[in-house]
Write a structure and sequence with these properties.
With 297 residues, this protein is an alpha/beta fold. It is built from 9 helices and 16 strands. It has 3 domains: 2-89, 2-Layer Sandwich (Alpha-Beta Plaits); 109-219, 3-Layer(aba) Sandwich (Oxidized Rhodanese, domain 1), CATH 3.40.250.10; 254-296. The strands form 5 sheets. Strands 4-1-3-2-5 form a 5-stranded mixed sheet. It has a 4-stranded parallel sheet with strand order 6-10-9-7.
Length: 297
């Protein structure tokens, strides 16, 4: 069983490039795989490995400027959900294209998972899912508004078009792990919205802390690794990816007559021609052979 750690921290890094190679070496030495982003505004990523390896990497990150209070949410996977380790430099650790937004200066009110149900059940509260449309399709909180965005950078435009209909309401926002909410609530604070709240630790912490019988969460939570989705208890869900188009595919999708593992799903059957499908079938054949070789080692 492998430990999976989703982590982030908004912090001021004067020279993110100088942090990249030392961090990459620590990850390699610890046998950890995954993806980490470094930017002037902080660090964001998901990594997986042994319990000891994850602890080694997290200790290094907590030693970076402003990262002593690194936000970490841990879960587990039967197989390593990443093929390699990537440490990349970016302009933002979560892209919003709003240079004046600074989550280190102002964010919304943090709401622990134990208090979230009461907040979002109040009549004067509007609940907004800040994730992308394909994530929301797998699951969300009961009654939450889906902005229908394809990327997080579209959220400010959506808010500008819809802000008036939320006048006089308290705003409660949530995302997978909390990072997008820190930025979106900071953005709303800059727009003059004071009564804005967000789920501390995001959906992942809620699914870990709140018992399923009392939960207001419906469905699975999309995650950005090979597990594809998790559910209550942060255990792996029933979704896989269509390796042709990258869309999540649940049990009903895989039972559809158009489903062909690694080749197509019902949603993308008209998006590719037979040459594409021939190429996808060969790729799938090689992937199956590679898994068989690994299992035999």
């Amino acid at each position: 069983m492998f430990t999976v750690a989703a982590l982030y921290r908004f912090a001021r890094f004067d020279d993110p490039e100088a942090l990249r190679d030392p961090l990459r070496r620590v990850c390699d030495d610890a046998g950890v795989r995954g993806s980490i982003l470094l930017a002037p505004e902080g660090i964001n990523g998901t990594i997986a490995g042994s319990r000891a390896g994850i602890a080694q990497v997290l200790a290094h990150i907590r030693g970076l400027p402003g990262c002593a209070r690194l936000d970490v949410k841990e879960s587990h996977a039967a197989e390593l959900p990443f093929n390699r380790m990537k440490v990349r430099l970016k302009r933002e650790i979560v892209t919003m294209h709003q240079p004046d937004v600074d989550p280190t200066a102002a964010v919304g009110h943090y709401v622990p998972p134990a208090e979230w149900n009461a907040l979002i059940s109040a009549e004067d509260v509007v609940v907004i899912d800040t994730r992308n449309d394909y994530e929301v399709a797998l699951g969300s909180f009961k009654g939450a508004i889906n902005p229908g965005t394809r990327s997080f950078g579209e959220f400010p435009d959506w808010w500008a078009e819809n802000a008036e209909r939320f006048a006089g309401k308290r705003i409660a926002m949530f995302c997978t792990g909390g990072i997008r909410c820190e930025k979106s609530t900071s953005y709303l604070r800059g727009q003059g919205v004071e009564e804005v709240f967000h789920l501390d630790g995001g959906i992942l912490r809620y699914l870990e802390d709140v018992p399923e019988p009392t939960s207001l969460w419906r469905g699975d939570c999309y995650v950005f690794d090979k597990r594809v989705s998790v559910r209550h208890g942060v255990v792996q869900g029933d979704y896989t990816l269509c390796h042709a188009c990258g869309r999540p595919a649940g049990p009903d999708d895989r039972a559809h007559p158009y489903w062909e593992d690694g080749v197509q799903c019902a949603a993308c059957v008209d998006e590719y021609d037979e040459r594409d499908r021939t190429r996808f079938r060969e790729r799938q054949r090689q992937a199956v052979l590679q898994r068989a070789r690994r299992a035999a080692e």
